[in-house]
Amino acid sequence: MWFCGVRRVALGIAASLLFCLRSAQAAKWILPTANRSLFTGDYDDFFMYVPRHWEGKDYTVWQGGQYGFVRSPVKSRGKVIYAKFHEGLDIKPTRRDSRGDPLDVVWSCGPGRVVHVNPITSRSSYGKYVVVEHVCEDGLYYSLYAHLSLAKAEVGQTVRAGSPLGVMGYTGPGLNRERAHLHFELNLLLDSQFNKWHGSIVSTGNPHGIFNGLNMVGIPVSDYFMACRAQPGLTVRDFLKRRKPHYKIAIPKDGSRLEIARRYRWLNTDRSAPGSAWEISFDGSGVPLAIKSMTPNVGLSQPLVTWVKESPYPHSYQTRKRLTSSGKALTPRGLRFVNLVAGRF
């Protein structure tokens, strides 16, 4: 019996390794629906609009369907900036039935394995959604497909680029038939012990396990896809290496698992370097860009801001409220996020 159990475990590990070897890919991604207007520059046909009330007028703006700080305009120092972050792309339908419901099939953007399916609308602000794991040459990435009317995928299912996952819809709060769309993300995964972190700050349950949206950090996916079109085979690693940091945080090595540095080894190319702390560089949206060893000038018991780029505008608007307006300190929200990234919980 003992031998059979060990043999089953060994076979399971071998099967997982074989899956990884077969599915490891260079960046060969496709858009997840038939809508190709992103590549033709017809952005009004690609991005689903967002209603906006600004200075006494109502607007419908496709810009709000993009990735990034594209929502909730505010005026600061005489300039309009956007305070609310949107982590993915809202892709318009290309076909509707006689009632106006979308007919677009949603498919996987690349080869991989379905790791999560949420079939119950009320369980998430994403509505019905699917997550696919992609084993790439530079790490594990997770695509997310949200607001589906129907999720056809099953956990454990192996998929190819173009394999159907569901049908576009408008499940989730705040949506209606007119604004039906696919919310699409390409993410880094933060920590496999996410449930412990979640339970320490939220009293409600977590039916999504590690594939809760809070545990995934979305990259600028439209920019990445456009870059891949210009440079086929571009990896997420090389794309993110081009991005400039907005702030850097020092984190004590003691008590920090920093699992993300093992999942994405390109983040820290010198893991054996001496130092009592890790310094993580983030862009404004919270995507980690690099990790290095350091020894702070002062004793460090909690994460600390070591650098922030100069800006005339409040850093709270530019960092998803993770830094204070001055940029000199983490907010409570920012501290929770950094502790999740570092595995300090």
Question: Would you summarize the structure shown here?
Answer:
The chain is α+β, with helices and mostly antiparallel strands. It has nine helices and 17 strands.
Query: N-to-C terminal Cα separation, in Å?
Result: 38 Å
The CATH architecture name of the largest domain reads Distorted Sandwich
**H/I helix tally:** 9
Structural class assignment? alpha+beta
CATH topology label of the largest domain: Glucose Permease (Domain IIA)
Largest sheet, described in full? Answer: 9 strands, antiparallel
The total domain count is: 2
Overall shape: it is globular
Instruction: Identify the CATH homologous superfamily of the largest domain.
Output: Glucose Permease (Domain IIA)
Measured on Cα atoms, how large is the radius of gyration? 21 Å
Task: Tally the beta strands.
Answer: 17
H-E string = HHHEEEEEEEEEEEEHEHHEHEEEHH
Residue windows where pLDDT falls under 50 for at least 5 positions: 1-23
Question: Would you tell me the overall average pLDDT?
Answer: 93
Please bin the fraction of helical residues.
10-25%
Percentage of β-strand residues: 25-35%
CATH class of the largest domain: Mainly Beta
